[in-house]
């Protein structure tokens, strides 16, 4: 699912599912490694989304201290 275009919320929900599956003592080694790889990809995706959101909020905060101006933000990759 990590390769599919998804929202932050979808990725986070999938990460939670993966964590629950990996906590299950019945999950085999191969499946655990597969889930771990997917989890790492989703974690990176979520971190990138959070960083972009933080940058946007920081920019808005800077502008609010002076004249409020909302710049167009490239949401194609957001």
Defining key terms:
0% strand, 68% helix, 78 residues, single chain, mainly alpha
Your description of this structure?
Helices cover 68% and strands 0% of the residues. With 78 residues, the protein is mostly helical. The chain has one domain. Helix 1 packs antiparallel against helix 2.
Short description:
The chain has 78 residues and is mainly alpha-helical.
From N to C, what is the helix and strand string? HH
Query: Strand count, sense and closure of the main sheet?
Result: none
SS summary, helix count: 2
Assembly level = single chain
The helix-and-strand class reads mainly alpha
Question: How many angstroms separate the termini?
Answer: 17 Å
Strand-residue proportion? under 5%
Q: Provide the low-confidence segments as ranges.
A: none
């Amino acid at each position: 699912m990590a390769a599919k275009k998804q929202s932050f919320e979808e990725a986070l929900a999938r990460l939670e599912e993966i964590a629950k599956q990996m906590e299950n003592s019945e999950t085999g080694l191969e499946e655990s490694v597969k889930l771990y790889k997917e989890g790492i990809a989703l974690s990176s995706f979520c971190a990138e989304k959070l960083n972009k959101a933080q940058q946007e909020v920081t920019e808005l905060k800077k502008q609010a201290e002076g004249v409020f101006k909302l710049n167009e933000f490239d949401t194609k990759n957001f």
